[in-house]
Amino acid sequence: MKLTTIIGARPQIIKASALSRAIRNNFSDKLEEVIIHTGQHYDQNMSEVFFTELDIPRPKYNLAVGSGKHGKQTALMTERLEEVFEAEQPDAVVVYGDTNSTLAAALAASKMLIPIVHIEAGLRSFNKSMPEEINRILCDHVSTLLFSPTQTGYDNLIREGFSKQLSPKATADHPNVYHCGDIMYDNTLFFEHRAENTCQKFSFCQPSYVLCTIHRNSNTDNSERMQSIFEAVAQLSRQRQIILPLHPRTKKMMPQMLSPNLMRELQDNPNINIIEPVSFLEMIYLEKHSSLILTDSGGVQKEAYFLKRPSVILRSETEWQEIVQQGRAFVCDADKDLICQKAEAFLGEPPADYPPLFGNGRAGDFICQTILDTL
Ligand code: UD1
Ligand code: UDP
């Protein structure tokens, strides 16, 4: 059976490594995978670095779509994907998550009657001002196999009308929905020990540093929110070193959105280390050795939990309800005082429990077997 896997943004490239590994190790006689990179992310440290580091097969196609407004970017991807699907004639198209690359592939494949396998299905923020919420809802509703990493995601799908009944042969009109665990958890377990080899690079990190990532458009494109979040970062830096691998979107927007005084303070403050985006192994290392993580990233919230670190979520809601319910993350929005208050509370508390919530580290195998059994 031939699968075409669509990747484009950083987290999708990382996620693809889990499925490719499962195919290579356990399904290579039955599943052929052709990887298509839309080119949504293209900087060396947002794309290429992951292929070499995580043993991901080289994409057969790079559609070189690059950055742009939503409509144009999605349209270009859809047009080029359609051509590739025509050439490749895949038996199924695998998509990850909720980016514009996900939506474009779902549009192209569904109109060509190619079954869609959506990995990370069912997640909802219930906030349609988030482009990802639109992408994930639309993709879920044209998919044939939907794999949710969490019980909450599975329940969302059932509430939206998907049937719990599993068909022996799934189709777009009779899709199958599974709660199968998280392939990102597969990856963290697999790469956690290898990540320790990157420690040399981080000799400048002081014990108990706080790791921070910011890239969500609701933050980067809103001056008030950006200012408030970075004021919180500056305040926390009086007690702890801050390490902030900077997403290119945020790098571009900071000078436009932050006051000149705050920009200067961030640049001159020796306790705030703003660095280039790091590789996945480096990120796992940084997460694991931090004392707290401030983030608006979906993936980083979860990895914080996998690696038993508390997180402060710089958004007004989260799709990853389970980690909040466990008390290991707190939704602080862009509220400077709340961010500082919750950060200090987490930093002051004794070690806590992180019960497993994201499967057994073999979601990739389950997905491959289910594709073979039901498509
Ligand atoms: C995208 C996804 C988001 C995901 C994130 C992961 C959508 C709508 N958003 O957001 O869900 O969380 O990726 O990181 O698909 N840029 C570069 N170099 C790059 C890539 C981007 O400089 O290699 C800059 C460009 O200025 C670009 C901006 O970042 O305009 C935003 O990139 P884009 O892919 O549109 O959205 P992200 O914010 O990265
Ligand atoms: N990540 C990385 N380097 C960085 C920042 C993040 O490798 O400098 C990884 C992180 O470990 C996680 C993924 O990128 O696996 C999350 O991607 P991102 O935050 O860009 O997007 P989101 O998950 O919010 O869609």
List the helices and strands and how they pair.
Blueprint: E1 2-7, H1 10-27, E2 32-37, H2 48-53, E3 61-62, H3 70-88, E4 92-96, H4 100-111, E5 116-119, H5 131-140, E6 145-148, H6 151-159, E7 176-179, H7 183-195, E8 210-213, H8 217-220, H9 223-236, E9 242-245, H10 248-257, H11 260-268, E10 272-275, H12 280-288, E11 292-295, H13 298-306, E12 311-313, H14 321-325, E13 329-331, H15 336-348, H16 363-374
Parallel strand pairs: 1-2, 1-4, 2-3, 4-5, 5-6, 6-7, 8-9, 8-11, 9-10, 11-12, 12-13
Helix pairs in contact: 1-7, 1-16, 3-4, 4-5, 7-12, 7-13, 9-15
The structure holds uridine-diphosphate-N-acetylglucosamine and uridine-5'-diphosphate.
Uridine-5'-diphosphate binds at residues 10-11, 14, 213, 215, 245, 277-280, 283, 297-300, 303.
- Biggest beta-sheet profile: 7 strands, parallel
List of distinct ligands in this structure: uridine-diphosphate-N-acetylglucosamine, uridine-5'-diphosphate
Shape: globular
Q: Give me the count of strands.
A: 13
Please report the distance between the alpha carbons of the first and last residues. Answer: 9 Å
Radius of gyration, whole Å:
20 Å
What integer is the average pLDDT?
98
Q: How large is the count of helical segments?
A: 16
Beta-strand content bin: 5-15%
Structural class: alpha/beta
What does this structure look like?
There is one protein chain. This protein has helices spanning 10-27, 48-53, 70-88, 100-111, 131-140, 151-159, 183-195, 217-220, 223-236, 248-257, 260-268, 280-288, 298-306, 321-325, 336-348, 363-374, and strands at residues 2-7, 32-37, 61-62, 92-96, 116-119, 145-148, 176-179, 210-213, 242-245, 272-275, 292-295, 311-313, 329-331. The protein is 46% helix and 14% strand. It has 375 residues and is α/β, with parallel strands linked by helices. A seven-stranded parallel beta sheet has the order 3-2-1-4-5-6-7, with helices on both faces. Strands 10-9-8-11-12-13 form a six-stranded parallel beta sheet, with helices on both faces. Helix 4 packs parallel to helix 5, helix 7 crosses helix 12 and helix 9 runs parallel beside helix 15 (336-348). The chain is built from 16 helices and 13 strands. It is globular, with a radius of gyration of 20 Å. Bound molecules: uridine-diphosphate-N-acetylglucosamine and uridine-5'-diphosphate.
